[in-house]
Amino acid sequence: MPKIPDATIKRLSLYCKELRVLSNEGMEVVLSKDLANRLDLNPTQVRKDLSYFGKFGRRKRGYDVSELLANLSEILGITTDNKIGIFGLGNLGRALLNFKGFSVRGFYVAALFDVDPAKIGSTLFGKQCYALSDAQEIVKKEGIKIAVLAVPDGAAQDVMDVILGCGIKSILNFTQRHVVVPEDVMIRSVDFTDKLELLAYFSRSKSNGR
Amino acid sequence: MPKIPDATIKRLSLYCKELRVLSNEGMEVVLSKDLANRLDLNPTQVRKDLSYFGKFGRRKRGYDVSELLANLSEILGITTDNKIGIFGLGNLGRALLNFKGFSVRGFYVAALFDVDPAKIGSTLFGKQCYALSDAQEIVKKEGIKIAVLAVPDGAAQDVMDVILGCGIKSILNFTQRHVVVPEDVMIRSVDFTDKLELLAYFSRSKSNGR
DNA sequence: AATATTATGTGATATTATTCACTTAATTAA
DNA sequence: TTAATTAAGTGAATAATATCACATAATATT
Ligand SMILES: NC(=O)c1ccc[n+]([C@@H]2O[C@H](COP(=O)([O-])OP(=O)(O)OC[C@H]3O[C@@H](n4cnc5c(N)ncnc54)[C@H](O)[C@@H]3O)[C@@H](O)[C@H]2O)c1
Ligand SMILES: NC(=O)c1ccc[n+]([C@@H]2O[C@H](COP(=O)([O-])OP(=O)(O)OC[C@H]3O[C@@H](n4cnc5c(N)ncnc54)[C@H](O)[C@@H]3O)[C@@H](O)[C@H]2O)c1
């Protein structure tokens, strides 16, 4: 099997997202050209990306939207519910809790964790909030595989260590800190400020990108 | 001047972020090797990236943290206050409003825009909220250069058009929709679900990445 | 003061990603 | 039924990015 480029994997979820929109719009078939246009990509890129995983299209016709979406979802592992735990229920954590986009894509918030006594033991938007000390037990019980880190920057590494102690190997980090994790753990950081800086840079240099 | 790689620009804000942490930790000097380690990059990469903009280091000594931070901030255009307007003050918009990370990096939320009559005219966390129809006037008056789009997905393109009508050319998009913009406008989309899907993919394929 | 050491800066090289140019299969029209 | 057309699929070429290997300069050591 030829090694699949990282860049390709990153685009798969982009394709999924657009296919969901197309599906909502009632489109049954899409051409690589159209999909590419909607995402500002090259049509060849779309076809090449897909070709790493199989032949999903029909010549002279295009790709069946729901079929391709199902295939890509399968590839990305978002067919079965992926359970996530949110660590830190401040402004951001609570906004995430309300975010409808998770369930649409097969993610389920299974438990919340915080240090604030006012939150521990209570139910926030229908989800139970636990103390950090209970994390190991709850994570195992609920089968949580992904952690969302939304605690204050200063607590990032400490809470990260608790998460690692639970055996979780996939982390989505919202803090502004770079946290240290072992080799076999995958961490992705979300940082809009980076993007804002980019916007500032480009708006100054009159250059353009995407 | 040799063309600066896009990938390099993207890493500049990463360097800034880590330099701020180092600065807080009281470090005065940092080696390309250490900076690279902390960000899971190759030391040569760090040096090469910086070399596009000048010679900031001292051989046998390393880089002066605050000096390099100042230089990179200058390059990224985050020395002068960049004024941003937030469009959509729901769960996410309000969380962003509370986010301290913006001001740290020279971004200032100058105005808020929504369609909800309950919000229009009121003050949210010290910031004035306006109707969309007032956007053009306020954007001009306040000198807003960057828009944050945090309205429901269905309203994304409509509100985008209002933003474009205000003459704003830099947009940070939080909606799950791909919005269409002219050539000379730069839009960056934030999507954690993409990253979650990646995490799900990698945790399944036992592979690892960053 | 001379020599060894260390870390930056950078041209050359290797790797990775994207696009081109073409082949193939399916469909439509003649 | 045959020819023309269209769009997927893909090896090869090109472009972009990352790494290597080393020259250079600053500091430390003898
Ligand atoms: N608000 C935003 O829009 C936003 C945007 C980007 C990034 N962030 C980042 O997300 C993180 C959280 O931001 P926020 O605005 O939600 O902060 P916040 O202060 O509103 O909330 C932090 C929450 O974490 C809890 N907490 C503190 N220490 C903890 C610990 N050791 N273990 C578990 N929980 C703990 C607190 O009780 C609180 O509920 C920060 O790192 C921030 O930089 C926030
Ligand atoms: N909540 C999250 O953590 C989260 C995370 C990622 C992405 N998002 C995305 O961000 C967007 C907003 O999410 P949310 O949870 O804040 O939604 P929300 O429903 O809580 O808030 C939406 C806000 O936009 C306002 N609004 C509606 N139509 C408008 C219009 N035409 N012009 C201006 N304002 C308008 C509403 O009055 C409301 O204040 C959505 O696209 C969502 O998918 C949210």
TrEMBL record, chains A, B:
Family annotation (InterPro entries): CoA-bd, NAD(P)-bd_dom_sf, Rex_actinobacterial-type, Rex_DNA-bd_C_dom, Tscrpt_rep_Rex, WH-like_DNA-bd_sf, WH_DNA-bd_sf
GO BP terms: negative regulation of DNA-templated transcription; response to redox state
Protein keywords: Cytoplasm, DNA-binding, NAD, Repressor, Transcription, Transcription regulation
Residue range(s) of DNA binding per entry: 14-53
Chief subcellular location: cytoplasm
Compartment(s) where it occurs, according to its Swiss-Prot or TrEMBL record: Cytoplasm
UniProt entry tagged with the keyword Repressor: yes
Residues bound to NAD(+): 88-93
A Pfam cross-reference name: Put_DNA-bind_N
Known role: Modulates transcription in response to changes in cellular NADH/NAD(+) redox state.
Subunit (UniProt): Homodimer.
Family: Belongs to the transcriptional regulatory Rex family.
Name this polypeptide is given: Redox-sensing transcriptional repressor Rex
Annotated source species: Candidatus Auribacter fodinae
Organism ancestry: Bacteria, Pseudomonadati, Candidatus Auribacterota, Candidatus Auribacteria, Candidatus Auribacterales
